[in-house]
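Known limitations

Structure tokens in this collection are predictions and should be treated as such. Users comparing against experimental data should check residue numbering before alignment. To illustrate the layout, the record for Phosphatidylglycerol/phosphatidylinositol transfer protein is reproduced below. The input appears on top and the generated tokens appear beneath it.
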Amino acid sequence: MLLVRPITAAFLASLAGLVLAVPGAQIAVGDARAADSWSWDNCGEDADPVHINSITVSPDPPKIGAELTVTIDAQVEQTIEEGATADVLVKVGRIKLLQQTFDICEEARKANASVSCPVEPGAYTIVQSVELPKEVPKLKYVINVQGFTSTDEPMVCVDLTVQFRPFFQIWD
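Generated tokens:
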């Protein structure tokens, strides 16, 4: 829902990569080339105020130099108010490319998102498109997004992995 903007901002600001659901198709065993892929995992708790039901991307898997459309279906259980934040960490291996806190409501305003604060309880589908720069290095990006309410209580948590592999790489 509102986390789309901070996630895409982090992905683009650092490499950077974005987002989730089912790993992309893999090339047959024995082929020295590995396909690009991505995945997501809910690292939050059942009691969190925001539940992400699904994240899809198009194209699947994401392609460097192409427009990426991200669709997030989420359920909001309690009102999200001004002051809610998202801590975003983007890593390649052990190297931190980006570690930043985003104001969720402000990012939604900047993106002209269809949802704005306060966000009332209910089901939301948010679609956002971004251009992935051609300069994005072909690496494996690990992204952790932890959202917090205006009172700093856990709100949502998502771990994302985006793998852009060079055609000659045969290891993870």
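For this record: The CA atoms of residues 147 and 156 lie 5 Å apart. Residues 4-14 form the longest helix (11 residues). Please report discrepancies through the issue tracker.
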